[in-house]
Amino acid sequence: MSATEVLREDVKELIDHAGDELLRKVKAMLEVEIEEDLDEKNMEEENWDDLPEELQAMIDRGIKQADEGGGMPHEEVVAKYYPQWFTK
Length: 88
Fold this sequence. Notes:
About 80% of the residues lie in helices and about 0% in strands. The chain has helices at about 5-15, 20-50, 55-65, 75-85. It is elongated. The mean pLDDT is about 85.
């Protein structure tokens, strides 16, 4: 039995002994979490699919370059460009 399966069984046992108020709170919490997970997943998929293919290809190239060690670490970018961005 996996850790998730054990956890599910433990939660089921606890729920069997919970009162109405606690059950309402747990239900509400689970509904919110599940809805947020679905919204986040849908948003990621929709946003990517809405991008033009050319832009998707550019992003994929950038990710590949970063995976291969290209690019500049955030700290270096901040050190190099921060003064320019935030001075008048």
